[in-house]
Amino acid sequence: MDWLTFIVEIFKALAWPAVVLYVIIHYRDKFAALLPNLQKLEAGPLKAEFGAEAAKVLEEAETIRIQEGVPDNMIVLSADENGAPLEIDHILPEKRPERVNKLFALTQPTAAILLAWDNIETAMKMAIERHGVYVSERHTQHPHMWLNALAKQGLVTEETYTLVNELRDLRNRVAHVKLEPTPEAAWDYVQASDRLVPTILKQAERSSK
């Protein structure tokens, strides 16, 4: 290959990158305006997938709640002297899970999911404390290790173990991946949490006897 041919080939190789760079620089404002739309297109399937999974965990949580005989909207710690379940008002205020209403879930979906997950963590902590479950000091800040400890002691069923992990995964997508859930998905998640919290406590109470 002679020098002239070599130079021509170099210009050919550089031509398209140069054109692309020129177009990007020249039309950068229009590209910037299109970017949010592109992001919405990308996020759309992720939101749809999240919504489908939130609906699925709600269905699973309701199934487990019914199987366990947990009254709806009730936190069951143990039975009093008459055998009646203790309701949410009997829980110490500093430990009581926060109720997340529908309006909050629909207007603040991300915050609602984070708070609903905090309630699940609270339930696991309460079960661990009440039943003397050992959690090593280095794992005291790791909810997945709390769940493993409860499962190891047979204080939660396999179905509940799986469901808690599914809810943790959904929560992490919101907290760490910054996925913005739809209001409907947030409400499904909150309802799943509402059903799972008393289920965890009742399973632990029953299994410890």
- Count of DSSP-assigned helices: 7
Computed Rg: 26 Å
Order of helices and strands: HHHHHHH
In this structure, how is the largest beta sheet organized? Answer: none
Low-confidence stretches: 37-42, 75-96
The average pLDDT score comes to: 77
Assign the structural class, choosing from mainly alpha, mainly beta, alpha/beta, alpha+beta, or little secondary structure.
Answer: mainly alpha
* Secondary structure tally: strands: 0
Shape: globular
Measured between the Cα atoms of the first and last residue, the distance is 87 Å
The percentage helix is 55-70%
Structure description:
By secondary structure, this protein is mostly helical. The protein has one domain (43-207). Helices cover 70% and strands 0% of the residues. The longest helix is centred in the N-terminal third of the chain and has 41 residues, at 28-68. The chain is globular. Residues 37-42 and 75-96 have low confidence and may be disordered.
